[in-house]
Amino acid sequence: MAILVLDILTTAAILFAVSAGLLIILGVMKLINFAHGAFLTVGGYMAYLNGAAGLSPWLSIPLAAGVGFLGGLVIERVIVRPLYDRPLDAILATWGLGIVIGQLITLGFGRGVQFAPNPISGTTELFGVDYSAYRLAVAVIAVLLVVALSALLKLTRFGLNARAVIMNERLARGLGIDSTRVRALTFGLGAALACAAGALITPLISVDPNMGLPWLVNSFMLVMVAGVSFPSLLVASLILGGAQVVVSTYANPILGGMTIVVAAALVLRISPKGFSRA
Amino acid sequence: MHDISAAITTRFRVAATGCIIGLLVVAVAPWLLDTYLTNILIRTLFLATVVMTVDILWGSVGILTFGQSAFFGIGAYACGLIFTHYGFGPGWALAGLALGIGVGAVVAAATGWLAFFHGSLPLYASIITLALPIVLTQVIFSGGNFTGSSSGLSGFPTYYWDLRIWFWTAGTFLVLTTTAAWLLVRSDFGRVMVAIRENEERCAYLGIPVSRIKIMLMIASAVIASAAGFGYAAFSNVVAPELASFQLGTEFLIWTALGGRGTLLGPIFAALGIDTMSSWLSGTMPFLWKLLIGVVFVAVIVLLPRGFAPLVGGLFRRILPVRTAGAPARVLVPDTRSRLGQGADDQKPPLRIEHLSRRYGSLSVLTDVTMTGRASHLLGIIGPNGAGKTTLMRCISDGSERSGGKVEINGAEIGRGAPQDIVALGVGRSFQNTNLFDTLTVADCLLLARYRIDGARLFRSSVGIALPEPALDILRATGLDQRLADETGNLSHGMKRGLELAMVLATEPSVLLLDEPTAGLTRPERMVIGKVLGRLTRDYGLCIVLIEHDLDFVREISDRVVVLHQGSILMEGTVDEVVSSELVRSVYAGHHVEAAQ
After folding, report:
1. A208 in helix, strand or coil?
2. Which residues cross the membrane (chain A) (predicted)?
3. Measured between CB atoms, which of B119, B130, B301 is closest to A96?
């Protein structure tokens, strides 16, 4: 039982960390970033490279975030900015970008599976059971991430501008907020979060050029259900991630793999606004 | 009359010519191509048929679908499963094909039910179509030996026909379905599809069952995709989860985008070209080729949203100027079977509102509104800005809007009905902002408005548009009857308002909701509208509810006036009673109501 609870909590934390970058881009830019999966993959390969270079495994996360931020700024300028008025086209363009990134990675590293070193190996005892220490660490990091992102949005000038753009972009522009800059920074931040999340989860799984894809679909569903607030993303991760763990444990893992997708689709059919009203 | 039928005949001649040329190319091609290329092309022809259906859904109706591969996969697995586990022979083949098509249609109907309902976002529909292939591949994975799990099924018995026969089968299938689709998008029904893409909301308020049409199209394209999948599997003798995967679904989208969405032939040629090239080049430089496709795709989406087809088409037209088969000119005819105003009965009020309220969170926009609209009466609604007038209209015409209370139209409660259901009960609504389809012609707009009553022909165009007398009157008075072939985007403001009103009347309502129909019009234009409204109440027994700021205009034509203030009814009475009321004057002048009382 304790293991089940811990599984649910850590799974929710991982899902939250993986989806946060997608959510912030959707919230501010009203844009679904289909390259999110590719960004996660890039983060995973950063962790792999970091390990191969013999650096401390903890370094891989800030390193991936930095690369993601810079890459995100460039991508925003070249591909995303011309598509602001065409949201469905932006989905396609970012999906195409994901293909390009995936193929570049395949060209560089081959199709094979790689592994990244784990910063904390072994297990730790909690509530009377031995549990993977790194999964627990990831959960702690995810909680810190919620706090940091909420603080960023609530306490900083950038956060105020971003919230203004979320609520009413026209008015925000009229008040002298440079919404283009806010969007660029947001995309950079979203990409940084995605890459960092990729680096974060890599020690738990392996790296291959398509590793981001299953995560893309799940985080996409979570974000749709959550609307545009971090607390409701956490709630969505807990409920749907919990459902996934329960189904995987008691039914079978393949059914578990589609739990989030099916549950999210049904939630949205019944209540098109998802959990965001709560 | 001659020109019109000529235009329609020309369209059929173009279709027939294209179809015959296509069939000839298909007939000759196997003798000119080597075995390797024929082999590749047979598969590609099946895939191109699916891409054609993607173009119908995305290019014509605006449904961005990631899930067309799921139906392709269903057809393919129907073939693989039947031939592997049950039996092989002409009977089994037909059974498999029927099974694939049937399951595909049922799954499409279920997906459509999930994805399309009044108020669903296009993005949400895309998500559902994205979830579909993901769920389906998981189901295939969990099928164990039955579905062959991740490695799929292969080596099942199938028809080892001569390659030429397979090529002819696949090619004929593509040419025939494409000809049908070509005629479909150019038919009257095709205009309805474009209208849904352009302005879904407005279509719903004209009584067009938008969601049902989308679901029907989804089912039709699923049937074609399933049949293509069946053929693909029967020929290639292999089925694998990749055939149903969302990667293949997005590849269909990529081909459609590159070829030019909404052009039908563009996506087909893009599919044929790219997939053939892929099979060729993926042997020598697999990753580089996919990379190149990705880069070109992103560049086309950003720089050439219409794809390559318009470029190629423009080049073609420069070399070979051809007369395109344009839209047929249409004529207006009086609707002899018009039921406009025939249900009017002085005893039964067509519109009854009881204790209606509308809240947005803690903000109450309407509270406890109770009123009755009688037949042959024109009820004016006045009130300062923000009084809730437009919200009231919205609550009458869309069942999901109100927070509490009851609305009855001709004795039937509207419940939670979508706008098109309420139009069917007899409500017609015009909008405060002229809300038309800019790229459609005047005649197309009128055709749309008649969809609920006359339907739309699937593969043809009809010449005459039957309209009730008052609608014709408005069109004549505003001169619109001379400009039927003009795009509505080019009309003057007065004409747009006139067209808007004519469209609402064409739906033959018994309760007419008009939101500032004369805003921004000149004095003579107002007179025309006022006269028509007068006739509608007098001769046709309509119940008209009118929001209006111009009190003089209201005085001229209204029987009774309701004054809304801060979401509740402040006063109801004749025009003179209301105008002379201290209470109303103080509200308009901005004094406190309490002070006036």
Report:
1. coil
2. 6-27, 34-53, 59-80, 92-113, 133-153, 184-207, 219-243, 250-270
3. B301
